[in-house]
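Submission sheet (multi-component)
Chains listed below:
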Amino acid sequence: MQRIVWKILRTGILTEPVYNLDKLPEVARIHHEILHILGRALCIRQVDAGSCNGCELEIHALNNPYYNLEGYGIKFVASPRHADLLMVTGPVSHNMEVALKRTYEATPDPKLVLAVGDCGCDGGIFGESYASCGRVANVIPVDFAVPGCPPPPIDILRGVLGLARRMK
Amino acid sequence: MKRERLRREAWVTHARALAARGGRLVALWGTERAEGRVLCAAYATPEGLQWAELPLAGEATFPDLAPVFHFAGRMQRALGDLLGLTVENAADRRPWLNHGAWPAAYQPLARAASGREAFADCGVIDYPFVRVEGDGVHEIPVGPVHAGIIEPGHFRFSIVGEKVLRLEARLGYVHKGIEKRFTQLAPLEAHRLAGRISGDSTVAHAWAYCMALEDAAGVELPPRAAWLRGLMLERERVANHLGDLGALANDAGLAFGLTQFSRLREDWQRASREIFGHRFMMDGVVPGGAAADVAPPMLERMRADGERLAKEVKSLRAILDGHAGLQDRFLSAGRLRPELAARLGVTGLAARASGHAIDLRCDQAWAPYESLEVRMATQRNGDVAARVSVRFDETLESLRLIGEICDKPPRGEHRVELQVPAGEAYGAGWVEGWRGEVFCALELEGGAIRRCHAHDPSWQNWPALEHAVMDNIVPDFPLINKSFNLSYSGHDL
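Outcome: structure written.
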């Protein structure tokens, strides 16, 4: 226990802070703007509809101490029924088409959809084929898209902000 | 790599003979050539890689390898979905990758198919899971959309009380036609697709593809290029092990572990971006070498970073090892005994945690590992604790290797030009990724890709997960699953 406390103290707070605007200004600014717009928590349901799992790794990184998404009331939830926002990755595989549509239908209104990654934006390197429906917008309505292969966490955070601004 | 043609009656006896002298099946796939369809298998033998072929000459069935190598079963079912080839007298005729997205008569990997065909809704095919019956037995269906940020797949648990009697997985949800897509790309471009087979193993898959292409083109890799690739592969191993160690601690209730390891992983990925231009080093491995060279100050930095990280990892290991609550969850959970692991043909990290000393970096002669003397990490317990322990050992070993590579990198070119052969050519690539052995078989014809089969070790290890979870309680499944951390995308292609 002692060692855990010691390690926590030595690690300190890594979340890129507000007062350090020159060095890494964006993370904190984005957090504050999102909170300012929403004034409440934002619940995200992530759906991998065919990704290579690269985007998932970067979405996971949003929860590390540097981006500290959950610390700001933006959290990933276990069911679409609890979600305000669907974060969808991948070219949508035909085998995931029905599951994605059902997830969308299960999300309460008003629901937002953020497509993450080049594949989600335009099908990426996989494109459309006998097995792939291509971009997410070919299957469910998309409100905002974040390009990148995979987009780094900061870009995904910007995407969430872009969506929040639309909610204003 | 040795390519060998076999007659139909020799297909199974050949496999049996190989198994008897310690050979392993690595991958099984099918291809269509001018002569007709050919079934192919790659074996790991004590002498190296062997590529066996069975020309089918118009026949649509082939002899069953599953009695010899258990995990061949699902690959053989996938052959039915992709090329219309099925096992003689098959007991299990359920499709594996096709969930009703294309008609049964359509064969995506046939030469006649463009791969761009679009089919009206063929309906979701009902998939009969094996039922377990008895007093108090019930089923829990999970997925394909899971509760966490993970890839899609379906798990069917048959349980009594909290105890898992049987788990059956259904995969294929992220099948997006990668193998057909390869044939539409130029050989010098397709490494980008290989790097997107499984994002967490982008370096390993891209390397396996490039190795296959270089093999087919008869190109010798410059020593410096091999060392740079080694650097990237070890960095990829470290990044994934750090991520898994954090997630495993978290799944057992120690959020502190996730915070610490995810912080270290983020530092590591930021450094990868500065040094190799990408947080995952995607497209860092290119045909003929590495995309960019690394300057001496960066080598020095990598060495210093590695030493610092090794200290952090050791201090966290002491904390995790001394945490009674955590060890209580890790020890004896998801046990895969050595005998069973051998029978299932398990490979990579999971095999090493179940007492099998298999690591291509030690077993096979390939640059740069032949001159690095990799120390293999093994455990005999086969439980979650063993897979955690192997991850710790391998992280530290990779950091040591990174230090060695940075200390004495060979001089010379980091990339050579590669001429794609104009005629028919074959090549194979075989790389020890962080999860296990990644394999790639490539056939070229007229300067284009005729067939590229990419094989992720998840094929070998998914069936093992079903066995490891038996007799455990349902709430331990996420922990056991994470301890294997298999790829859905790499398997579904």
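Remark: Chain A has one domain: 22-167.
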